[in-house]
Amino acid sequence: MTELQSWVAPTYNGLADLLTATAVDAWDAWDAPSLCETWLVRNVIAHVTMPARLTPAQFGAEMAAARGDFTVLSDTVATRDAALPTADLLDQLRSPVLHAWQPPGGGGTGALSHAVIHSLDVTIALDRPAVAPAAAVTTVLDLLTAADGSWFGVALTDVRLEATDSDWSWGSGQLVRADGGRLVSLLSGRTLPDGRTIPRG
């Protein structure tokens, strides 16, 4: 197992632990808005746990039904499977199948990025600490900036990023300061709860 892949399991297990703990809260975290536009927390969890739930044949059938459009497939599955019992979704977050999964052509890099970015979609929206290991967050920051924002189409020309919880920094120009997790979300095209965003390129 690569170092990148080794950070996937603690990220998803931490997310499961967080959502289990929120069951004692006075509000329902599962139905809170996430940082993913139009998705609630339960939609995000239904999305990331697809690999633990769908066989390759089932995934192929879903893709055929979506006429090859992965965005359509994702929205369809996230909407439908968000209605599954939360206990089932929690079990799937803790599944070794999910922890070993890699997106087609994405390898460990894709698996880690998917886990970290979507975990932050939940934790930041719920105003909870990040569940991904700090080294995993920093690695994803490096991956996103190495791609110069192209993964999510954000414009990084004349932008300097500085993490407030580590010595990580990148670029030059207009200063954007936030903790590492929030910087990952900004680089992933998300809008933070305080309204901050990085414009699209």
TrEMBL record:
Superkingdom, natural source: Bacteria
The segment(s) forming the Mycothiol-dependent maleylpyruvate isomerase metal-binding domain are 27-95
Give one Pfam family, short name only: MDMPI_N
The record's section on InterPro entries has: DinB/YfiT-like, Maleyloyr_isom, MDMPI_metal-binding
Q: Name one GO molecular function term.
A: metal ion binding
Q: Which keywords does this Swiss-Prot/TrEMBL entry list?
A: Isomerase, Pyruvate
> Which protein are we looking at?
Maleylpyruvate isomerase family mycothiol-dependent enzyme
Q: Which organism is it from?
A: Arthrobacter oryzae
